Amino acid sequence: MAWLSDGGIGSSDCEVLRDAALAQPVNALTSLAYVAVGVAIIAVAVKRRVWIAESVVYGVCVAAVGGGSVLFHGPQPDGSRLLHDLPILFTVIFIVVNDVAVLRAGETRRWLLFGAGCVAATGLTVIDINIGTAATGIGVGAIAVLEFLIYRRHLRPAVTARQRRGYAAIIAVAALGAMSWLLGRTGSPACDPDAAFQFHGLWHIVSALVFGLWWWLAFDGRLRRSTPG
Predict the structure, then answer these.
(1) For 99-158, what is each residue's pLDDT tens digit?
(2) Alpha-carbon distance 144 to 152, whole Å?
(3) What is the number of domains present in the chain?
């Protein structure tokens, strides 16, 4: 067993790195939460037969976050950080583009912007993976601002108690996610490399729920209104 603290793959995520098929088994297995959420999103959209293209693309992005994270924390092949980081950035780009479209009353060419954003993100991340990491952070900040503007302008329905609870839930879950990410960093007072419970693993589960809740807020209401009967 080896514990890497000198910048090796996964060394910043607290859990001990093992010489095994899954270098960080807790972090690797909890990454499957993204896959579950992505598949669930696609299944619901296909069942209701509306907003399928948007939901499938978003669901694939979320599921790919899980696949890349399993590789990053599991077998750790060459290029696993790229496969870990890019799907996260694609998912963030998807949310930003759709939120901008909501603010512009649907006038934005969503697919063109999403495709261009993904191409640019891929190129920049391949050149320097730290640029992709920085872009993800900027994108997350942009999402917070965009969602606030959408809520304040009542552009996404939040008039019923159920819809307001949805916003409250995503804020609470996002706050829990931020806390678990910070506590799961190597060097955190809560970091225990050998523990069966890992805060970074909790981060995987909670952030997957955030992605799912965002889709529910952005698309599920329209799915219900569009479903016959």
Answers:
(1) 999 888 766 688 999 999 999 999 999 999 999 999 999 999 999 999 889 888 877 765
(2) 12
(3) 1
Q: Is residue 11 part of a domain?
A: no
Mean pLDDT of the chain: 87
Q: Within a domain: residue 2?
A: no
- How far is 20 from 75, CA to CA, in rounded Å? 8
Residue 78, domain extent: 19-226
- Residue type at 161? A
Residue whose structure tokens are 């092949």: 77
**How crowded is residue 156: how many other Cβ atoms within 10 Å of its Cβ?**
17
Q: What is the pLDDT of residues 21-59, one digit of tens each?
A: 999 999 999 999 999 999 999 999 999 887 889 999 999
Task: Report how far residue 147's alpha carbon sits from residue 133's, in angstroms, rounded to the nearest whole number.
Answer: 21
Alpha carbon 225 to chain centroid, angstroms:
26
Residue 89: how many other CB atoms lie within 10 Å:
22
Q: Is the dihedral of CA 163, 41, 197, 190 positive or negative?
A: negative
CATH number at residue 69: 1.20.1070.10
Please state, as a whole number, how many other Cβ atoms lie within 10 Å of the Cβ of residue 6.
5
Q: In the numeric block, which tokens belong to residue 219?
A: 């698309």
Residue 5 lies in a domain: no
Over the Cα atoms of the chain, what is R_g? 18
Is residue 14 one of the residues assigned to a domain? no
